[in-house]
Amino acid sequence: VYQDARKQMEEKMSQILAEMTQGKYDRIGLDEQMNLVLEKDGQKLQPWQLSQGVMEQMYIALRMGAGGIFTREESMPIILDEVFAAFDEKRLESALKWLSRQKGQIFLFTCQRREMEILERNHISYGKILLSR
């Protein structure tokens, strides 16, 4: 059962990361100690070996993957507070597009204006992502 759950989790995280990185990174997993590991070109990389932006994308994939598995039958609201601070514009736009395709309501708290600008530029409804500054 544990291996099945782990495999499901890794598949879900990998799918999320691949979507957020437009396929640049498409395999994320958990090592024997349950630490996040990115697999790229046959290498296993720890989050601290990558840029801050990629590391943050990995952690979002982990949280969203776990949330998706635990709330499989019923969508739950997603609450995010300043999770995109280390994201450049490209990463942020990709993450917001991914979020807009998710079921349920999303509450995004930020002190930045750029999230709102990207949502408007991409015609993403505020009914889908509720933004608070």
List keywords for this structure.
three-stranded antiparallel β-sheet; single chain; 133 residues
Summarize the structure.
The chain is α/β, with parallel strands linked by helices and 133 residues long. The protein is built from four helices and six strands, in the order αβββαβαβαβ. Strands 1-2-3 form a three-stranded antiparallel beta sheet.
Radius of gyration: 15 Å
The overall pLDDT, averaged over residues, is 86
Which stretches of 5+ consecutive residues score pLDDT under 50? none
| Assembly context of the chains | single chain
What percent of the residues sit in helical stretches (DSSP H or I)?
Answer: 40-55%
SSE order, one letter for each helix or strand:
HEEEHEHEHE
SS strand fraction: 15-25%
Please state how the strands of the largest beta sheet are arranged side by side: 1-2-3
Count of separate DSSP helical elements: 4
How would you characterize this protein structure?
The chain has 133 residues and is an alpha/beta fold. The protein has helices spanning 2-20, 52-70, 89-100, 114-121; strands at residues 28-30, 36-40, 43-45, 78-81, 106-109, 129-132. β5, α4 and β6 (129-132) form a beta-alpha-beta unit. The longest helix has 19 residues, at 2-20. The model has no long low-confidence stretch (mean pLDDT 86).
